[in-house]
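can u pls check wat happens w/ heme C
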Amino acid sequence: MARLQRLDATMRAAMRHFCAVVLAVAAQPALCAAADAVEPALSDADAACLGCHSMEALARSLPDGETLSLHVAAGPYARSVHGAFGCGACHADIDASVHPAQGKDIQSRRQYAIERAEACGLCHADAAERHAGSVHARRAAEGDPLAPLCSGCHGSHAVTPRTAYETCVRCHSADLAAHAKWLPNSRTHHEVVSCAACHAPEAPRMIDLRLHGGAAGWVVEQEGATPFGELARAADADGDGLDALELRGLLQRINRDAPGPRRLRGRVELREDVLAHGLLAREEAIRACDSCHRYGAEPFRNVTVSIVGTDGRPLRYPAKAEILGSALAVESLPEFYAIGGTRSPFLDLLFLLALAGGIGVPAGHMTLKWLFRKHRARRAGSGGE
Ligand code: HEC
Ligand code: HEC
Ligand code: HEC
Ligand code: HEC
Ligand code: HEC
Ligand code: HEC
Ligand code: HEC
């Protein structure tokens, strides 16, 4: 600790000098005070780097007229998955003994980001290799400045396991609406099918049944409570994956000390997260309805039950595929009816009738929905929840 304080003092002195000489912002002491906010969890070396780089105003201008912000927020960095590795893990070329005097030639923000993203691949070769074959990597190589590099989806200094999902929508919100042209109930589909389940067509898929608390959203594991994995193992008496009865027992156990009823919501997901990098162009995307809406379709052959872990990663426990079609599971899965995929041949027939009939998908879909509502209501009525 003493060492850290000494370092801090040295750093503050260096910074004051730095603020005055290099940045010419000495008149704004508040900016320089930001350095005091360095998190204790950081190594001395990182704290030293952040002594300067946690200043929000730290920036440099580039030959193309852009400004490259040199600010790195200390807190999010320390809490990120990489906080323990040190700045040098991705910036091995920085030599503290000559930095920052020995400035670097940086042409543009994009060029710098492309160079730095190379570092990610050193530790994540699998992700990097798959990303390299993706439509984004191809567009980036063609010079599209908006096509995401690793940092475009995960960020660079605040990487957490949960960063990626929402990011697709950030860049593609307009494209989402376009799905409605051919996909009935596209909003429902976007909720229950991950983007990559259709856009990484070569990846094996599965159904993940995730605990949902209604208005409270996805259920996140609480610190101090019995871990989900432990509860699931206890429920799975024979240790071969949860069957319908065991799943019901698990839910009863979870609901016993939950503030509100917790139920499962199904999502079509990839079996391995890393395969989410194999995103191909739109022509290759899965659009055939029967790749999901068919009895025994590929995604429905593997099932997991999950909860969101404290760090945002899903904690998954295997379940038997039969639970999706089981009457016993209906009350556990009241909101999940991938027509054809999960249920009886009767529903297949409904689906086919809706698609045939010559009335086109939207009209067919309305009929289907109407029929389905009745069916659903009946089930809910007899389910006795
Ligand atoms: C005394 C203040 C100071 C300290 C301490 C400092 N930097 Fe910098 N850093 C700067 C300035 C100023 C620049 C812009 C210099 C330039 O590129 O001309 C910069 C640029 C950078 C850049 C972008 C340009 C490049 O070379 O890639 C990175 C990355 C960087 N620093 C990382 C670090 C790391 C890692 C450490 C700790 C080992 C560190 N810095 C310590 C002030 C500092
Ligand atoms: C997990 C890898 C990783 C770690 C660890 C990391 N950086 Fe970076 N850093 C990057 C990437 C990637 C970029 C390129 C920016 C982008 O793509 O948005 C970058 C860019 C920068 C820049 C240029 C400004 C910017 O944000 O674009 C600075 C300064 C910098 N890093 C400093 C640091 C410091 C200081 C640390 C340690 C506290 C650190 N970095 C730790 C990956 C990392
Ligand atoms: C020095 C090796 C190293 C470098 C370089 C590195 N990472 Fe990591 N990364 C790791 C390790 C180890 C973990 C697992 C940390 C953990 O489990 O808490 C990790 C975790 C991750 C995760 C979360 C994985 C999960 O399980 O959900 C993502 C996303 C990630 N890194 C992306 C990146 C990106 C993007 C870059 C470049 C900006 C990068 N990494 C650079 C070693 C590295
Ligand atoms: C188009 C967005 C996108 C880009 C670009 C991207 N990723 Fe990912 N990444 C994802 C998604 C989606 C996941 C799945 C997990 C999730 O949803 O957060 C993921 C997961 C990961 C994981 C965790 C994998 C696992 O097995 O748990 C790592 C590590 C990772 N990415 C690293 C990288 C690296 C390195 C790059 C650059 C070569 C990169 N990513 C580029 C979207 C992206
Ligand atoms: C930083 C912005 C950004 C993020 C984040 C991003 N994309 Fe993209 N994406 C682009 C750009 C730019 C293109 C190329 C231009 C285009 O074709 O629309 C593209 C192209 C695509 C294409 C090909 C479209 C076509 O016309 O063939 C698909 C599919 C796609 N992205 C899916 C995704 C998915 C899924 C995610 C999340 C895992 C994601 N994107 C994240 C910017 C982004
Ligand atoms: C049910 C499968 C499915 C899901 C889920 C899905 N897509 Fe698509 N997406 C497609 C198909 C098929 C196309 C090609 C449409 C066409 O060419 O008419 C497409 C087209 C696109 C395009 C190209 C632009 C366009 O207007 O055609 C982008 C970008 C895209 N999707 C991104 C996403 C993102 C981001 C998500 C997740 C939020 C997502 N998609 C979810 C199947 C899907
Ligand atoms: C990648 C898998 C996948 C593909 C491809 C797919 N769907 Fe779906 N669809 C689902 C899932 C999962 C649900 C379940 C939603 C629920 O009830 O929770 C669903 C629900 C539906 C529903 C019922 C919506 C509701 O609100 O109850 C209709 C209708 C439907 N899909 C029609 C189609 C049509 C038509 C196509 C082809 C143009 C298609 N789907 C392609 C996975 C898919």
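Residues 41 and 78 are 7 Å apart (CA to CA).
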